[in-house]
Structures are given as C-alpha cells and as structure tokens.
Design goal:
The chain has 381 residues and is of the alpha/beta class. The protein has helices at 23-37, 52-62, 71-78, 92-101, 116-124, 143-153, 173-176, 184-187, 191-194, 197-207, 289-295, 306-319, 327-346, 360-363, and strands spanning 14-19, 42-48, 66-68, 82-85, 105-108, 133-135, 160-170, 210-218, 229-236, 241-247, 249-261, 264-270, 279-283, 350-351. It has 2 domains: 14-139 and 309-323, NAD(P)-binding Rossmann-like Domain (Rossmann fold, 3-Layer(aba) Sandwich); 143-303 and 332-363, Dihydrodipicolinate Reductase, domain 2. It comes from Streptomyces beijiangensis.
Length: 381
C-alpha cells in the first residue's frame, strides 16, 4: 500500500503494520500514514484483527497485501519496522510487548495501558536505541503547541503561575450501553483516563513535572463502574497551581487549557484538535507592542494531528532516537491519572513518585477502593 515518494530513493522504506481495523485505524492512522507516504518511503504491509472478514475487507479496501487474525504470526512473517495499535486499552500491554520483542517500534493509541505496572513492563522491554513504544498524544504536536512550549521553556512570558485544564464533554446513556464502556477492565478508567488524558498530557508537556495532586471524583449521572466526572488541584515543580476538570456530563462541549504567566495569559480553546487560530495570547498591560507581536507569531499553521506526531516518530525511528511520549515522557500523564484516582478514592494528597510496586494503585487505577473497584477486587480495611 502507498506509492513512496521519489525523494531520497536511497532511504529505506519503513514497513508498517496496523493492529485493529476499527474507526480510529480508518479515520486517523491510515490517513496519517498515507499523507506521510507522500513525503517519504512508507509501506503498510499488513493489518491484524480478530475478525477475519473485517480485516480482509479492510485490506481489500486500502490495498494492504497481508490480512492476519494472529498478531504473532504477522510479526514473524512480515517483520514490520513499526506497528500502530488501534485496539481497546485492555489489549495494549500484551500487543505492545509482542511487537517490541519482535523488534518493531510501536505507536499505541491512548490510553496506553490500564496501569503503571503495565506501562513499566512495556518500558522494560524496550531496547537501547530502540525499539521504543510511543503513545498517541497528538495534541502535543503542531505549530501552536510547539510555539507555546518554547515561550514557556524560555520564560519569555515570565513564570507560569496559574493554570486551568478542562475536558468537559457529553456522553449519553446510549454511549454507555456499549458493554465495555465505563468498566475498569476494558476502558481502564472514566473521563480522566479515556477523555481528559489528552488535555492533561498537553498541560504537562507545556508546564513540566507535577509534584502533588488533590482530587475528587463522582458518579453523578451514569450507572457505571468508573467515574463520570472528576476535579483536581495540581501543584507543579515550578510552583504553578492548576485546576483540572474531566467530565462527560457537559452539553456545551469544550477542551481548554489556560496558563496565566507573569507577562501574559495563554489560552487554547478547541474540542478534538487545534490549529494556530485556536490559541490566544493576552499580554499584561506593561508588555511592549514588540513583545506582544513576537509572542503572537505562531508561524505557518501546522494543526495538531496524528500526522504531525507520526512524522516526528518516523524521523526518530530512522535515527534510532527515543521518541516523545515514550518512556518516562509518556509515563507522566498516566502517573498523574493514577494519582488523581488515588487521591479521590482515599481522600488524601498524592505526591509524584509515590505510587510504585506494593501500592494497589500501581496495578489497578481503582486501587481496589470500596465503592469503586469491581466487587471481587475491593480491598477491605
């Protein structure tokens, strides 16, 4: 599949396999791969799905030569360089490990896996110089996020002081009628894990490491195992304080990040992806016109997208460099979510780096908490 570009004919083609042939593969991964193939040698050599008719139809529709229902057989026979994983979260750990052990790099849809223990097992399977496993955190990428990240890193806007991270979406009862939704074992968590993770990851990418979190969670509408809303207060190592809201109860849907710095406020307002026009910078009254103009110059518009992240990932693959959103860089968002749940379910402040082996929240994000964990997994005091 895909005709490779004539540019850099001596450059080796990257062989890609797609695991899972549902909506995210069709709507995001394949279009990104096709667009990148117009720039450099990329070849989708195989697809895998447990549904034989589905994978055969998928391959036939997109010109992919080899359909499989067995992941290991595909890895053994096709030896792909890169595997994109588009399956439910409960499958991510084992599929990622299988690909890494076969020597393939991995690009895995969020949520990365159901627990920190699973994530650490994946990181332990990576090699020096690769293969590496990266998470799909496409909101980090694009010209807007890159510009603001540089401004904050260089303290061009002064110290970051106050932040707000909001993922307020709406999901009705029909959404949760799908059997695997709203369950710890299959979704890994509620809106903090499955919806708000993108905005929280972007906030962390912009502001740097967090140090402590204090949270609440509730089931206010839906009859599910997980929460349907959570709120949190987060302190960052740089001293900034943030509020975080994740909801599936909000008819007026929006995704928003706001960061108030000493010299300017940065705000991003969008829903499922952003471009330069979705960012706003408001200078403090004493900022000069020249400063304001420089801060507001985002350059050519590169929207956040799977393509933007995939382009960077393949460049790292070719160079043998660890990609962004892998290893410790990818773990930080999952650790914050684990800490958010622990704080909410235990009514305590949770500090970064304290959830490890022996902690119930290390192996399951519900931590066995009474009233939150499935009954068979509840831990009684």
């Amino acid at each position: 599949m895909f005709v490779t570009s004539t540019r850099a004919q001596q450059e080796r083609s990257v062989r890609v396999a797609v695991v899972g042939t549902g909506a995210i593969a069709r709507g995001a991964h394949l279009p990104a791969l096709a667009a990148l193939a117009a720039e450099q040698p990329i070849e989708v050599v195989a697809a895998v799905d447990i549904d034989k008719s589905a994978v055969e139809a998928f391959c036939g529709e997109h010109g992919i030569a080899h359909p499989y229902t067995d992941l290991q057989l595909m890895l053994d026979e096709q030896r792909p360089d890169l595997v994109t994983i588009c399956t439910p979260p409960t499958l991510h750990r084992d599929q990622t490990l299988a690909a890494l052990r076969a020597g393939a790099w991995v690009w895995c849809e969020k949520p990365p896996c159901p627990s920190l223990a699973d994530f650490d097992a994946i990181e332990a399977a990576e090699g020096q110089g690769g293969p590496y496993a990266a998470i799909v955190f496409q909101h980090r990428f694009g010209s807007g996020a890159e510009h603001v990240r540089k401004l904050l890193a260089g303290q061009d806007l002064g110290r970051p002081l106050v932040a707000h991270c909001q993922t307020t979406w709406y999901r009705n009862t029909a959404y949760y009628a799908v059997p695997w939704r709203g369950r710890w074992s299959t979704e890994g968590g509620g809106p903090a894990m499955g919806h708000g993770i993108h905005q929280m990851d972007l906030l962390l990418d912009l502001l740097g490491p967090w140090s402590e979190v204090r949270a609440m969670a509730g089931r206010l509408v839906h009859d599910i195992e997980t929460e349907d809303v959570s709120t949190a207060l987060v302190r960052f190592e740089n001293g900034a304080l943030a509020t975080v809201v994740n909801s599936v109860l909000s008819p007026d849907e929006v995704s928003r990040i706001r960061i108030d710095c000493e010299q300017a406020t940065v705000e991003l307002t969008h829903l499922y992806g952003h471009s330069n026009a979705d960012w706003k910078i408001t200078p403090a009254p004493d900022a000069t016109a020249e400063q304001a103009a420089e801060w507001r110059d985002f350059g050519p518009d590169v929207p956040s997208s799977h393509l933007a992240q995939l382009r960077a990932l393949v460049a790292d693959l070719r160079a043998g460099h660890r990609p962004r959103s892998s290893g410790a860089d990818g773990r930080t968002s999952l650790e914050l979510i684990a800490a958010l749940y622990k704080s909410a379910f235990t009514d305590t402040t949770v500090r970064a780096g304290t959830i490890g082996p022996g902690d119930p929240y290390y192996t399951a994000l519900h931590g066995g908490a009474p009233g939150w964990a499935p009954a068979a997994e509840e831990v009684r005091a």
